[in-house]
Amino acid sequence: ATDALRDDYSGGGGGGKGGAGNLYTTVEAAADISDICIVRDHARDTGLIFAAGEQPKVQSYFIPSLGPAPKWCSFLEGLTEELEEAGLDGSGRGENVTVYEDYKFVTEAELKELNVESLKGTPLLRGYMHGYFMDSKLYSKIKQASDPFAYEEYRKKKLREKIEAKRGSRIAVQKRLPKVNAALAARLLDKKEEAKAKAKGRDAEAEDGGASA
């Protein structure tokens, strides 16, 4: 099968011929391909191809019609089914979407932290490398349930941002103080602010006294 695929590596692409010598498939690679290797699983060829080229990383391609996915990356089968259901099987009926754009990648440590290790082995988690893919909406719900104080933290964060914004405006005012006798001008501004605060306090006391009378 490897010899059949070694048809053309020129122009950064690879091609292969079928049994009758007809073009079977073409691959547009990111760099010129030097050699290819069809991954074998249990003494049979799979649809996964590694291509060594003029770039640091080995390129990988999965062609389902050549064979199944290797056992150690079986998630490729589910990914292919999703592409077919979405109409991205080459017919031109599908929309331009990113695969797994609605999924959140979580590690084993995160599953343990969220206390959802029981989801392993269910359709809600899809194994990938050293972790899993989980539906983004499901992840959000689990995250909110595991952290009931999330809203309180969000509120405090917004409050801190407002305080910082006010401090920034005060600094801007101080920068506009006159260069001559700047210290005196700053003290006068402070006294003015203190006088305003005291006046507000007296007004509030007067209102309370009037209401009690």
Automatic annotation (TrEMBL):
Identification of the protein by name: NUC153 domain-containing protein
Domain of life, per lineage: Eukaryota
Coiled-coil regions, chain positions: none
Annotated source species: Phaeomonas parva
InterPro entries in the record: Beta-prop_NOL10_N, NOL10/Enp2, NOL10_2nd
Any one GO cellular component localisation term in the record: 90S preribosome
Domain named Nucleolar protein 10-like N-terminal: residues: 21-86
GO biological process, one term: maturation of SSU-rRNA from tricistronic rRNA transcript (SSU-rRNA, 5.8S rRNA, LSU-rRNA)
Domain Nucleolar protein 10-like second as annotated: residue spans: 99-146
Higher taxonomy: Eukaryota, Sar, Stramenopiles, Ochrophyta, Pinguiophyceae
